[in-house]
TrEMBL record:
Topology of the protein relative to the lipid bilayer: Multi-pass membrane protein
Residues covered by the Integral membrane bound transporter domain: 411-530
UniProt subcellular location: Membrane
GO MF terms, alphabetically ordered: iron ion binding; oxidoreductase activity, acting on paired donors, with incorporation or reduction of molecular oxygen
Keywords: Membrane, Transmembrane, Transmembrane helix
The protein, known as: FUSC family protein
Gene Ontology terms: cellular component: membrane
Residue ranges constituting the Integral membrane protein YccS N-terminal domain according to the UniProt record: 72-340
Species of provenance: Mucilaginibacter rubeus
Length: 718
């Protein structure tokens, strides 16, 4: 029960809920204020402009929000005015819908925020389609819509200006929660009743969320002028927490072993269950840290893992003593990883102690944080370079344009009432570049609309009190915008009754509107689903090789960076962490592509088992490299150790050969010559760590060959 309470509280502290409140106030306020002066129609028009611009108000640096919303407002006015005149003739309106659907869908080539500007523009086009305005009224009405958009932009920027660090806190807290869940999945590998293959599926799926939230935090921390240029206590705490959190994630990645082997080897000792229990407890501690960050509170670190780990050490030592035939070396390595995790957790707790802010220094090292964020190029040639059927964005734009034209014609012929724009609205919301995303959004939209329609009708039928209905409207509106990025089904379930109650207040018949909305949603969903399958479809198997190549190149660069460090070459912290970041990002991209592939029709899931095996092998390879990286950072590997260098060179060569089959460029590496051994020098006494390190490098070599084999299998034409 306490866990559920904590989760509920965390939601109310999260960016999802604060987004819902901000958007709700930004849209409602003009209508509520002007209603007091008998100017409700004017207020509704201002709210319509705010409704369109709020689509652009997604998480990210304030400067990006400002620039995007400014561009969105310009498009808002132009599209509203053009549509207002175009709707005077059905043929010019049909042409405009087709052209704008293509143009604004092409904005995806400039990234997600530019795509949201395109969506905002399409929304106002759809809302203006059925607005009965005489030609002289069009520009004035469009200017009022623009005023609503500008109002929302100013309101949103003021909202963030009051609490400049809050968005970064929320994104960071959610990232900690993701890593805690990732850690729990890793813990389950040590339990004998866990299916290893199924657990890998969960792991790579969770890795997608971890990577997405890490990217969001990087943008907020390192692209924000306040974070980058001001050295305040809150900014230092956020940056230090994130740096340590990424290091903790690396330690979690490094805790990878042959789980089938260690289960068989230590199944009767009970030590694996103990390891899993401690890891789960550490995940609980990370959840506590997430709550501390989200709630902006200070709490005492309650669990002392030193005691737990000391008990585990005694148990591991006893295994080595009692059974001379069973080496406990791998368990000792697990113990080292757990100590590192515990240390990272303790460090973060210290940042949130009552007097920590006063004594915190700048993050150590020569890390150039600006290098960790991507910079979007808005050059015009990028737009026109994508005018080819080889471009997924171009095919998506053509599909949206054709489907919107079909939807427009269908709405004019079939629609029940005066809200035929709902057909086009459904199409715009559902159609995504890939089939699997369109299919998922289609299902969610239908379920949400039907479920929300039932709730809305029930409230309006059995609760006649207007004040109570308005309270429900506000609650549903906040719920719709709070869950739009968290759970789309729930968002639509909230949105439908909010729309029905709104139309009731506007004097539109209840049952007619509900029936019309559900029918138009079904029509739009059907058109969108059929079109995503038949009109310029984009299947993951057509693009999966690019994702395979990218992740392979990232892993090679990661391994080369570690190899150069072992060879004695000076590697900057920035270079190392950039290589690590690329592995995490590209691995998440590959995992996401694989998940989308599993949602496509069976006939389009080509080599799905081989691709899944590649995904798992890539994760294992990344984990083994992270293990070597961790050991190297602690100076556990002798510089230029001949055995180590030989194995690493062999692995890089195999991976390079595999990459070339995927059309990747050969990655040059210079790890120098191994210094000749002086015969007179005293040979170092072999250490247990040397054996384990050799074993880890051997695993990397084996996995490299396994990746080569599975890549050959994927590339063979069926």
């Amino acid at each position: 029960m306490s866990i559920n309470t904590r989760e509920i509280k965390s939601f109310f502290y999260s960016q999802y809920f604060s987004d819902g409140i901000r958007i709700c106030i930004g849209i409602l306020l003009p209508s509520l204020l002007l209603m007091q002066f008998d100017k409700f129609d004017l207020g509704l028009t201002l709210s319509l402009g705010a409704l369109c611009i709020c689509v652009i108000d997604t998480p990210g640096p304030v400067s990006h929000k400002r620039n995007a919303m400014a561009a969105g407002n310009l498009c808002l006015f132009l599209v509203a005015a053009i549509t207002g005149f175009a709707r005077l003739n059905v043929f010019t309106l049909g042409f405009e819908i087709t052209f704008f659907a293509f143009l604004f869908s092409m904005f995806t080539v400039y990234g997600n925020r530019a795509a949201s500007v395109g969506t905002s523009s399409l929304l106002i086009m759809i809302f203006m389609m059925d607005k009965a305005l005489a030609a002289p009224e069009v520009l004035g009405y469009s200017a009022t819509i623009l005023a609503g958009g500008v109002w929302y932009m100013i309101f949103s920027l003021l909202f963030f200006g009051i609490r400049p660090y809050r968005a970064a806190q929320q994104a960071l807290g959610e990232n900690v929660t993701d890593i805690a869940r990732f850690l729990r999945i890793k813990a389950d590998f040590y339990l004998s009743d866990t299916d290893i293959d199924e657990n890998y599926r969960k792991l790579v799926s969770k890795q997608i969320q971890v990577s997405q939230h890490q990217d969001a935090v990087r943008e907020l921390l390192f692209k924000s002028r306040i974070m980058a240029r001001e050295s305040t206590a809150p900014s230092r705490i956020l940056v230090l927490t994130f740096v340590d959190l990424v290091d903790i994630y690396e330690q979690i990645m490094a805790t990878h072993y042959d789980y089938s082997h260690i289960r068989e080897k230590f199944k009767d000792t009970g030590v694996l269950t103990e390891i899993a229990r401690i890891i789960h407890n550490m995940a609980d501690e990370l959840d506590d840290i997430a709550y501390i960050i989200l709630s902006n509170t200070r709490r005492r670190h309650l669990t002392d893992f030193n005691i737990e780990l000391e008990k585990l050490k005694i148990k591991i030592d006893s295994i080595g003593k009692n059974n001379q035939e069973t080496s406990n070396l791998v368990l000792k390595k697990v113990l080292v990883n757990l100590r590192s995790l515990s240390e990272g957790i303790n460090n973060i707790y210290k940042y949130y102690s009552s007097k920590a802010a006063e004594s915190l220094n700048e993050p150590k090292g020569d890390v150039e944080y600006s290098a960790f964020v991507t910079h979007q190029d808005f050059a015009p040639h990028i737009f026109f370079d994508n005018f080819t059927l080889a471009s997924g964005a171009f095919k998506h734009a053509l599909r949206v344009a054709l489907v919107c034209l079909i939807g427009f014609i269908t709405a004019k012929l079939v629609s029940l009432g005066h809200h035929s724009y709902w057909v086009l609205l459904t199409i715009i919301v559902i159609l995504k570049p890939g089939f699997s995303l369109s299919k998922q959004r289609n299902y969610q939209r239908l379920i949400g609309t039907i479920g929300g329609g039932v709730i809305g009708i029930a409230i309006l039928t059995f609760i006649p009190n207007v004040t109570v209905q308005f309270i429900f409207l506000v609650i549903f509106m906040m719920g719709a915008y709070s869950f739009q990025r968290l759970n789309y089904v729930v968002s639509v379930i909230f949105m439908t009754p909010y729309v029905l109650i709104l139309f009731k207040f506007l004097g539109v018949g209840l049952l007619n509107v509900a029936q019309e909305r559900i029918l138009d949603t079904v029509i739009g969903s059907t058109i969108a689903l059929v079109a995503s399958y038949l009109i310029f479809p984009t299947w993951e198997f057509e693009q999966i090789q690019e994702a395979l190549r990218d992740v392979l190149v990232a892993n090679i660069n990661y391994l080369v960076t570690i190899a150069e460090s072992i060879s004695g070459k000076m590697i900057s912290i920035t270079s190392y962490k950039l290589a690590r970041k690329e592995v995490y990002v590209k691995s998440a991209n590959l995992s996401a592509a694989f998940e989308r592939m599993t949602s496509e029709p069976k006939s389009k899931q080509r080599k799905i088992k081989d691709v899944h095996k590649f995904v798992v092998l890539n994760h294992i390879l990344s984990s083994y490299i992270a293990t070597i990286a961790s050991a190297q950072s602690k100076k556990e590997i002798p510089v230029a150790h001949p055995e180590a260098m030989k194995l690493i060179k062999k692995s890089i060569t195999v991976l390079n050969d595999t990459g070339q089959k995927l059309h990747a460029e050969n990655i040059e590496f210079n790890i120098g010559k191994i210094p000749p051994v002086n015969p007179e020098a005293q040979k170092p006494v072999p250490q247990p760590e040397d054996a384990l390190m050799k074993e880890q490098l051997g695993f990397i070599n084996k996995i490299s060959y396994d990746i080569a084999k599975i890549t050959d299998s994927i590339l063979i034409e069926p």
